[in-house]
Design brief:
The chain has 578 residues and is of the alpha/beta class. It has 2 domains: 302 residues, ABC transporter type 1, transmembrane domain (ABC transporter transmembrane region fold), CATH 1.20.1560; 237 residues, 3-Layer(aba) Sandwich (Rossmann fold). 64% of the residues lie in helices and 11% in strands. It is built from 20 helices and 14 strands. The chain has a 6-stranded mixed β-sheet with strand order 8-11-12-5-13-14, with helices on both faces. Strands 4-3-6-7 form a 4-stranded antiparallel β-sheet, with helices on one face. It is elongated, with a radius of gyration of 35 Å. The mean pLDDT is 80.
Length: 578
């Protein structure tokens, strides 16, 4: 993302806090004015020392009291200004984080599938933090720095135009040096941010699947991948920091030249009587104060390059195309009964690789539809299309006569209960996880759902029963226990349609038989789609769809398909021949 565009987007998000920024600018002006007034007072105090034994102590005392009052006002102004700047910075970053997280909720699954989770986390957490640091430095030091430079020039011109001209002539060298380095470090910080995101993604993936890594002895390969990314991050970070750190020494050198020029010119004028010794002292103080902001601003510019690079990554996420919008006037069947009509359905994840094509299907309300086929034939994709996790490329899916694309996604999904092979549990209590789809459920309802899912027994054996807190994705629970909780979650809601994708794949045979009984009760009167590899679990289905390469190659009941001696029969015999 272009740097200028990123700056415009930042300013747009800062706009709601213009009132705070105006107050901060006023306080910065007070701070700078008081800071710059102090050298004038010090110069006047020095001029009170007329000669040996001739000191105007009364006048000096008055000047020193004014110095103390000015310092107090400057200190209070700076403290309040910093509080306001902190408030604005962290409100803006809070808003950006909320915007980014809210946008993630509406991103299409195709985007989430194509970007590592760790990289998304890095953008929302690390990149926003880096952006906050740069924004805070910009508010705190850029405001006061620019005002200090302008104010110092005004005061110096009032004291002596020739000496001030020396400063004005030499100063542009500092700006040229800072700009030269800053324009070359932006791309380096962009590379650093991308590499850090890739490293975060690798760490997230490895830690999240550590058991799998260890089970397959993949530790060495994981370490090698991490070392490679770590080395890349070290190189690009060192390169960015090295070039950016050149800014401060370079500007300090120019500032030293300015100070020397002021000292030499001022001393010659003081000898000739052009200015007083007190004025020369004030001038040298101003030369210091004048050059100091250039060092700070050069540091701010360096930090801003990093902040802008990170902000660009966050805005890329925020501006990623969202999923197709909800219809303006969503439609819903008067009563969802579960009748499904699929006409000429086609879909592909990648345009050049069609997955599902010319798919037709008619399902009556309350039917149990089993979907079988080899891995990658489109079974789970078909479920994703029914749930509108993806929209089809062609054709349509009708629920009780209404196209699902004309429905509100939330209303559609409330009509469906899903139990997947991959379980998902959030960090929280067992009770909260079961009640996810029905947060206002009574305790009796939750317990009843757990009993019907055969999860009540193991839950009661946990330290705090239903109030036991589990970690992300189930913590120490076994895979089978996690799946039982997911089944209990659906048992609690009992929507008119069910999607079971290998729902009992992680459960022992004895428990599976009990769960199957519960499923049979739950499926009564409900349209149910069952995705299964174990063909023994689908013998009682009203209709079995046999999929291959995204097409339905056979359909019928279990006995009919066996009698055909086709693809289904070969699949079935391959499981039970031995």
């Amino acid at each position: 993302m272009a740097k200028n565009q990123t700056i415009k987007k930042i300013l747009r998000r800062v706009r709601p806090y213009w009132g705070h920024l105006v107050l901060s600018l006023v306080l910065a002006l007070v701070y700078v004015a008081m800071s710059l007034y102090i050298p004038v007072l010090v110069g006047h105090a020095i001029d009170c020392i007329i000669a040996a034994g001739r000191v105007d102590f009364d006048a000096m005392r008055s000047f020193l009291w004014n110095v103390a009052a000015s310092a107090a006002v400057a200190g209070i102004s700076q403290w309040v200004m910093n509080q306001i700047n902190n408030h604005v910075t962290y409100r803006v970053t809070r808003d950006i984080r909320e915007e980014a997280f809210a946008h993630i909720q509406v991103l299409p699954l195709s985007y989430l599938d194509g970007h590592p989770q760790g990289d998304l986390v890095s953008r929302v957490v690390s990149d926003v933090d880096t952006f906050a640091d740069g924004l805070l430095m910009g508010f705190t030091q850029l405001f006061t720095g620019v005002m200090t430079i302008v104010g110092t020039l005004v005061f110096m011109l009032r004291i002596s135009v020739p000496v001030a001209l020396v400063v004005i002539i030499i100063t542009p060298l500092s700006l040229v040096v800072a700009n030269f380095i800053a324009t070359r470090t932006h791309s380096m910080f962009q590379t650093q941010a991308r590499t850090r995101g890739a490293q975060t993604a690798l760490i997230d993936e490895t830690v999240g699947n550590l058991k799998l890594v260890r089970a397959f002895g993949h530790e060495a390969e994981s370490m090698a991948s991490f070392d490679r990314l770590n080395d890349d991050l070290e190189k690009c970070a060192l390169k960015a920091i090295f070039f950016s750190s050149m800014t401060n020494p370079a500007t300090r050198f120019v500032n030293s030249v300015v100070y020397a020029g002021v000292g030499l010119t001022g001393a010659l004028m003081a000898i000739s009587g052009g200015i007083t010794v007190g004025n020369l002292t004030s001038f040298l103080n101003y030369a210091n104060q004048y050059t100091k902001p250039f060092n700070e601003i050069s540091g701010v510019i360096t930090e801003l390059q990093n902040a802008l690079a990170c902000a660009g990554r966050v805005f890329d996420l925020i501006e990623a195309p969202a999923r197709s919008p909800e219809p303006e006037n969503p439609q819903m069947p008067e009563q969802v009964r579960g009748g499904i009509e699929i006409r000429d359905l086609s879909f592909s994840y990648v345009p050049e690789k069609p997955l599902i094509g010319d798919f037709d299907l008619s399902v009556k309300p309350g039917q149990r539809i089993a979907i079988v086929g080899p891995t990658g034939c489109g079974k789970t994709t078909f479920i994703n299309l029914l749930m509108r996790f993806y929209d089809p490329d062609g054709g349509g899916i009708l629920l009780d006569g209404v196209d699902t694309r004309d429905m509100d996604r939330g209303q559609l999904r409330r009509c469906v209960g899903m139990v997947l092979q991959d379980t998902w549990l959030k960090a929280g209590t067992i009770r909260e996880n079961i009640a996810m789809g029905k947060p206002n459920a009574a305790d009796d309802e939750i317990v009843e759902a757990a009993i019907r899912a055969h999860a009540h027994g193991f839950i009661k054996r946990l330290p705090q029963g239903y109030d036991t807190v589990i970690g992300e994705n189930g913590g120490s629970l076994s895979q089978g226990q996690r799946q039982l909780l997911c089944i209990a979650r659906v048992m609690l809601c009992l929507p008119p349609m069910l999607f079971l994708d290998e729902a009992t794949s992680s459960i022992d045979t004895r428990t599976e038989a009990r769960i199957q009984e519960a499923f049979n009760t739950m499926m009564e009167g409900r349209t149910t789609f069952i995705v299964a590899h174990r063909l023994s679990t689908i013998r009682e289905a009203d209709l079995i769809l046999v999929m291959r390469d995204g097409h339905i190659v056979e359909q019928g009941r279990h006995e009919e398909l066996l009698a055909k001696r086709g693809f289904y029969a070969r699949l079935y015999q391959s499981q039970f021949a031995h």
